[in-house]
Amino acid sequence: MHSPALDLLRRVFGHADFRGEQAAVVSQLVAGGDCLVLMPTGAGKSLCYQVPSMLREGTGIVISPLIALMQDQVEALRQLGVRAACLNSALSGEEASRVESQLLAGELDLLYVAPERLLTDRFLSLLDRSRIALFAIDEAHCVSQWGHDFRPEYRQLDVLHARWPAVPRIALTATADHPTRREIAERLGLQDAPWFVTSFDRPNIRYRVVLKDDARRQLLDFLGDHRGQAGIVYCLSRRKVEETADYLASHGIEALPYHAGLDAGVRAANQRRFIRGEGVVMVATIAFGMGIDKPDVRFVAHLDLPKSVEGYYQETGRAGRDGDPAEAWLCYGLGDVVTLGQMIAQSGAPEERQWVERRKLDALLGYCESTGCRRQLLLAAFGEQHAGNCGNCDNCLDPPRTWDGTVAAQKALSCVYRTGQRFGVTHLVDVLRGADTDRIRQLGHDQLSTYGIGTELDARQWKGVFRQLVALGLLEVDIEGHGSLRLTPDSRAVLRGERPVSLREEVVRRRERVRGRGRGAASGPAAATPAVALSAADQPVFEALRQLRTQLARELSLPPYMIFQDATLRAIAEQRPASLDELARVGGVGAAKLERYGEQVLAVLREAEAA
């Protein structure tokens, strides 16, 4: 059964059908109702307001926090033949005036605008004189003061309902736990609106966590499996971003830095190269990524611990938006916990906020040290249950071995107590292993009952014990004490023998084998490793189509994915359409793209058949 919405989806966007909750959301908005939409990145949130904006009379006003995201979405829509524009600070006065005239004349299907501009008297007055189809509030989690991307301007967006009560509103986010969802609904006046919640699971992403042991070298080894692919590497500090980008570049990887301290022109140029290239690695602080709509990011790597599970989910969600296999790789150590704890303590935030941030950090540490399915833990943070093991995280693919660490835990906790709860891991390990150092003798710690009682484990294993005891909530890091460890109330049960402790076995990295692979990858050819395998007959056709896409993208100064995504090119290579009518039935080929590129695509296919 066809509907105007489905016909438009097929004709303009080239999709055969709606996915998940999309159809229900579209129906709600077309009928004039409000809604709150929670869908993971890559699930098609944008279609939920783009289709109703084109079906309803007037212009859909999309409130988006980032200029880069606006420009990308507007360009992608124009490629589909949709009348879209944006208003932001990047436009000249003349360009902005032209967009405003188009809005007043009813010549736009969608207009993207930043919340700061929307809230100005001038723009509100402009809307008063325009016909509005709907309001779409993207990245709605920015309204929450407890969220990871809080923006005060979002708090004032309740003016939309007060001023235009008859215009439907849709608030959308890809990451919001239950408290954040409630706050979004309350702050935006959407308490009575239905919630449309899709599973937060991103089954195409593989999650891996490794312990720091020469982190840059570990990163290089990891990149060996992603030769020629686009990806993002997140670091905590600006200095580390630049050092890491230089290190990767020195090993033959096209890596660029991105952080708020770089010159704005350099930042913009690096972002453009990342978006329009096909194998660029962006090394960045979390200032990068929220506005990135690049679907073919094949990996997201963290060289430092993120600040929360929520932030981690959002950052890793920038990989694999096209649905093809992608990887989220996290390299961390206990030092990250100390650094982030110090950042929280020095933030100047109210104690209540600091308490929330510390609990979020604790939850992420628990995720890192878990021996169970990582996907289950990640989804549980959003109130979602995942039945059984996922089969696509390191713990499911290669289950870690555990051991009864009760006695080791008692020794470690006793050592913390006997030394006065004033020392960090390195000194505590030296005491347990009976090291003969000047510091131990000066402090008299060679006279303690815990001195030398831990010779059965090496230093690396003891560091693992302490790290896991922190993750289990049996020890806490004293931030003001420069990373010293102290007991928590829960440690008493372990010391009394009332609570057993199971610990994961520390794995020794096979350094030479992995390093060799990393070096070979860095110096190898630039062609991307395919994310999805094609048959031997289809692969050359796919590569020829990619070459055509690259050529078109350069001619039009567009990112290649805006011409066609890899999934569409694979489908064309496999189906081998022989006419425009057949090509029109391939997913991702809408009417505008068929008209613009159809004949050139068919020419490539005819040439492949003749070869």
From TrEMBL:
What region holds the Helicase ATP-binding domain? Answer: 26-194
Q: What is catalysed by this protein?
A: Couples ATP hydrolysis with the unwinding of duplex DNA by translocating in the 3'-5' direction
Which gene name belongs to this protein? recQ
- HRDC domain: which residues? 535-611
Xref: PROSITE patterns:
HELICASE_ATP_BIND_1, HELICASE_CTER, HRDC
State the name under which the record lists this protein: DNA helicase RecQ
Which key words are in the record? ATP-binding, DNA damage, DNA recombination, DNA repair, DNA-binding, Helicase, Hydrolase, Isomerase, Metal-binding, Nucleotide-binding, Zinc
Which PANTHER family does UniProt cross-reference here?
A: ATP-DEPENDENT DNA HELICASE Q1, DNA HELICASE RECQ FAMILY MEMBER
Where on the tree of life does the source sit, at the highest rank?
A: Bacteria
- Name the family: Belongs to the helicase family. RecQ subfamily.
The yes or no answer to whether the keyword Isomerase is present is yes
